[in-house]
């Protein structure tokens, strides 16, 4: 454990970074429950209003798109207004958006509340938040912390999905799920307000893993956060590795929350699998993802992240190619899919964050990763809308699953050149 300068004989103090990480984990867990809601409401919601899968999927696609687009601007907002205030704003947007949606009756109202308000709130409490906390509060164990914070998405699924599905099924009303999520996100606000801190210097410490007294506080971030995010993007787009990172993460989004997170339950229902059982399957995948993503963070501190990503995308692609057969076959096949896909679901995040830091440096890493994450959600939005359209036109999700699997195999090859030139350079004397 890190040892800051202390009087002789005094035991090292517990580092406040772990409390910050814990609060962030709970915040991301609650936000994950919000993002899991469309998966269990898609069918009853569409049935009540007599809307097609394509129409309902368009609302989810807008939500996912804004969730990603807000990411780089969220990273700039963390610098400008601090982590605590931005996290509280995110939770209030999620709670308000879902709570008000239970009174909505028109398509445009759901576009505004689920698409815009919830999408923006999700973007402020997303993977970019975990990257900002890990980069700001940790020097040692950064990969492990990033893995655990990323895994909070899986834990959120594990906690929320079965209860949301049971509430919707038993009550016969999709509005039960938004009410549960609205209450859960609102309950986290006091926790963030009381315990969260913006910077190690706020508690008189250096980041975990560094010795000595805290650095003198520099001038507070000023200026327009949007302009800062766009300026960093203008620099990043001139670097080849940015396009490789963003392209692979586009495929990551298209093969995870945009496709599986949104459409697996309806696809399972099409094959005669009840909604509660399908939601339990997603929850089981969340459990395996909790293990896989945490292990991925540990591995990214020790091994070549390019090779880790190559393995993750390759295995995910093979799993998706197998999924159409698993849905039609015995329960064992679907169970095997849940294990292998679950272990790999968002294991790509810790090595992607680390490679982004290697290429662009600590100061700009969070904002650049925000743009990379925006590409992730662009891919997710594309998959959510496309899979819904394919199901409407062809009566099956199989083309969407197979297409995503092929994209993953292509991405597995595309990640190998990332930061390769930098690794080949000799260390400075």
Question: What tags apply to this protein structure?
Answer:
single chain, 429 residues, mainly alpha, disordered N terminus, disordered C terminus
Tell me what you see in this structure:
This protein is mainly alpha-helical and 429 residues long. It has one domain: Up-down Bundle (Growth Hormone, Chain: A), CATH 1.20.1250.20. It has 17 helices and no strands. The protein is globular.
Number of domains: 1
Helix content: over 70%
Mean pLDDT over the residues: 82
First-residue to last-residue Cα separation: 29 Å
Catalogue the unreliable spans. 1-11, 423-429
Q: Which CATH architecture is right?
A: Up-down Bundle
Summarize the structure.
With 429 residues, the protein is mostly helical. It contains 17 helices and no strands. The N terminus and C terminus are likely disordered.
Helices and strands, with pairings:
Elements: H1 17-49, H2 53-81, H3 83-101, H4 107-124, H5 127-137, H6 142-171, H7 176-195, H8 225-236, H9 240-254, H10 260-270, H11 275-300, H12 305-328, H13 331-344, H14 349-360, H15 362-394, H16 398-414, H17 420-424
Helix pairs in contact: 1-2, 1-3, 1-5, 1-6, 1-7, 1-10, 2-3, 2-4, 2-5, 2-8, 2-15, 3-4, 3-7, 5-6, 5-15, 6-7, 6-11, 6-14, 8-15, 9-14, 9-15, 9-16, 10-11, 11-13, 11-14, 12-13, 12-14, 12-16, 14-15, 15-16
